[in-house]
Amino acid sequence: MIGQPIDKGSFVLPIRPDLMGVRSYGAPQLDVAARLNVNENPFPLPDELVDAITDSVRAVVSGLNRYPDRDATALRKALADYVGTQTSAHVGVEQVWVANGSNEVMHHLFLAFGGPGRSALTFTPTYSMYPEYARDTFTGFTAIPRNNAFSVDLATALPAIRELRPSLVLVSSPNNPSGTALPQEDLQAIAEVALEQGAMVIVDEAYAEFRRRGTASALELLGRYPNLVVTRTMSKAFGLAGARLGYAVSADPSVIDVLSVVRLPYHLSAVTQAVAHAALEHSEILLSQVAMLRDERDQLLGWLVDHGFVVAQSDANFIMFSGFDDRDNVWQALLDQGVLIRVPEPAGWLRVSIGTPDENDLFRRALLVATQGTSATEQNTANQEGTP
Ligand SMILES: *Cc1c(COP(=O)(O)O)cnc(C)c1O
Q1: How far, in Å, CA of 246 to CA of 100, rounded?
Q2: Per-residue model confidence (pLDDT) at position 3
Q3: What confidence score (pLDDT) does residue 41 get?
């Protein structure tokens, strides 16, 4: 814990008062059989890609005596091309921003559009980092609860935007931790009111590639709302969480200009740019696992329902579920069997990331053991009677 007075004569670290006693973000990083707690892609990079990335990095190593391309222009161009394959909207390099993970992209957005005397509005339960970006940038923060289906409740959301007049409205869609995607017409209603009030709308699409057929992306709306920014990442579907590469696509190129004012100089290393560039050139190999992970998700979701658990609908590579008395006991019993999952914000729920088929099997078996005797499994035993 920081903020404890250190006895060095009379010296006390002059830490910001609002940071006293605050603990750093930390989902457990444990070496267990199935790590299903931070929504990573469970597959190691295929050899072909390992070679391509290694070659790409090798090509920049001798030039590491120089600073990297400050504007990461080649990489942003490649991202604009990739995004172009994902949407009917035209996306130019001047609309794309890159940073070390979409977390840093968000931080930049808060630096540029938040600040003292301003506020951000979001809809909870949602990504636990949002209040931290607000704290770091002295931006006010308001959370409006989602409804029982973990959808944004427009009846409270729209008046809140009008009354609070935030400069940033943040929507995670598909939402972490619930997995639910925001219907396009709801996003339009939010963007409309935000536009009227002069607010930016940031749609965090970290899980966009996992969405179900028929679920739209906010990218489609870029032509309609000049206040819209969509953030994405290579940490999830692309399986590159370790590379730290996130990006944003903005409707208005001026957004990118202001982000380049608040970033630190040379924020994205030449090595990161080389890794991401090579990965994008082979995006079809990386994304080939996505279809399989989506199938695994749908199967696991059906299995959870069949076994009496309550689930939130998921357009992501994780599922939030409930239907047990003591979630902390269930979480621990799973961990005792080598399965690490997440205790998310809403009370009574757990969240599991989709792993490899073997990991998902292990999770299923471990969950039945962990919830033995709870109402969900009793119902399950009843359901199973008479089945072979
Ligand atoms: C995982 C995640 C991110 C991605 O963060 P990176 O910094 O790109 O690794 C962003 N937003 C949400 C909601 C996430 O769950």
Answers
A1: 6
A2: 61
A3: 96
Q: How far, in Å, is the centroid of ligand 1 from the Cα of 248?
A: 12
pTM of the predicted structure, to 2 decimals: 0.94
Rounded average pLDDT over 84-101: 94
- Whole-angstrom CA distances from 375 to 149, 329, 334 are 21, 14, 17
The span from the CA of 171 to the CA of 314, in Å, is 16
Are 220 and 302 in a shared domain? Answer: no
Using a 6 Å cutoff on CB, does residue 99 contact ligand 1? no
Helix 47-61 to helix 283-306 angle (10° resolution) is 130
Closest CA to 359 of 317, 330, 320, 322: 317
Ligand 1: nearest atom to the Cα of 244: 9
Predicted pLDDT at 288: 86
Structural domain containing residue 192: 65-281
In a domain, 58, yes or no: no
**CA proximity to 229, closest of 178, 195, 279, 276:** 195
CA gap 251, 96 in Å, rounded:
9
Could you identify the atom of ligand 1 that is nearest to the CA of residue 126? 13
The two three-digit tokens of residue 377, written as one number: 């499994």
| Domain-ending residue, one of 257, 281, 305 | 281
CA of 172 to the centre of ligand 1 (A): 10
Helix (H/G/I), strand (E/B), else coil: 321: strand
Domain count of the chain?
2
Model confidence pLDDT, tens digit, residues 351-366: 999 999 999 999 999 9
Which amino acid is present at 64?
L
Please state, in angstroms and rounded to a whole number, the distance separating the CA atoms of residues 75 and 274: 8
Are 197 and 164 in contact by the 8 Å Cβ rule? The answer is no
Q: Please report, as a single letter, which amino acid is at residue 271.
A: V
- Note the Cα 109 to chain centre separation in Å: 15
Does residue 52 lie in a domain region? Answer: no
Half-sphere exposure of 53 (CA within 13 A, CB side): 19
* CA of 79 relative to ligand 1 center, distance in Å: 17
The answer, yes or no, to whether any atom of ligand 1 lies below 6 A from the CB of 353, is no
CB of 34 within 8 A of CB of 355?
yes
User: Left (φ > 0), alpha (ψ -120 to 50) or beta: where does 30 sit?
Assistant: beta
Place of tokens 């609908």: 313
What's the pLDDT band for 24 if we cut at 50, 70, 90?
Answer: confident
Task: Supply the CATH number for residue 200's domain.
Answer: 3.40.640.10
